[in-house]
Amino acid sequence: MTKQIPNRLEIDGESHVMMRTPWLFAPGDDRADRYDFVGIDSANRSGVVSCWRVTEGVLYLSEVEATAYRRDENDIPCDKRGHCTQVTLAHLHDQTGPVRVDWFSGAIDLDLEPSFDTVFAPPEKARRLRFVAGRLVSDEIVAGS
Questions:
Q1: Which end of the chain is more exposed for a tag (fewer CB within 10 A), N or C?
Q2: How far apart are CA 64 and CA 87, in angstroms?
Q3: Contact 39, 30 (CB under 8 A)
Q4: Range list of β-strands (E), 4-115
Q5: Contact assessment for residue 140 and residue 128, using Cβ atoms and an 8 Å cutoff
Q6: Can you tell me the distance from the alpha carbon of 61 to that of 108, in angstroms, rounded to the nearest whole number?
Q7: Comparing C-alpha atoms, which of 124, 106, 104 is closest to residue 114?
Q8: pLDDT by residue, tens only, the chain of 145 residues
Q9: Given CA atoms 23, 34, 52, 47 in this order, what sign does their dihedral have?
Q10: What gap in Å lies between CA 3 and CA 26, rounded to an integer?
Q11: Which of 9, 36, 4 is nearest to 21 (CA)?
C-alpha cells in the first residue's frame, strides 16, 4: 500500500490516509481462505483498497475493492485465467452494508500531512486511534515515529 492508492478511514466528517489497516477478517474466519489477493502494480502491492469509518465510537469496514484469484468456483466471475477483476465487500463478508470490525484491537495511525511518499515514511504528525474489540478507546495526536 502506498499513499498513491491508500486505504482511508473516515472519522468526524473527514477522510484520512491510514498508515496501516486491520485485517479484513476476524482471526479464524473461513471466508479469509476464499481469495489470494494480488498486487496490481507498485502503487498497490496488496491488491486491496479499503475504506473504513468510525461511527459513534465503533469501527466499520465500509468498502473494499480488490484484485484476487478465487479459490473456489462459485463466488465471483473471473476471466479465463481465473483472475478476478474486482472483489467487493459483498464478496468478502456476504453483505453489502458496512461490517462492524469487532475483531480488531490495536492502534490505527492516520496521516495528517498526506503526500505522495510511501505510507512507510512516517509523517511529522499523525492521529492515533486505539480500539478494543472495535470500539474507540482513545484518540490522540502524536509526533511521527
A1: C
A2: 7
A3: no
A4: 8-11, 14-18, 35-37, 48-55, 58-70, 83-88, 99-100, 106-111
A5: yes
A6: 13
A7: 124
A8: 445 568 899 999 999 988 888 888 888 888 777 777 766 665 566 667 889 999 999 999 999 887 776 666 555 555 656 555 677 888 788 888 899 999 999 999 998 876 655 555 666 788 999 999 999 999 999 986 5
A9: positive
A10: 25
A11: 9
Cell match 484518540: residue? 139
Amino acid (1-letter code) at residue 52: W
Each domain of the chain, given as residue ranges in start order, spans 8-143
With a CB cutoff of 8 Å and minimum separation 6, the contacts of 53 are: 9, 10, 11, 59, 60, 62, 98
> What are the residue ranges of helices labelled H in 1-141?
89-93
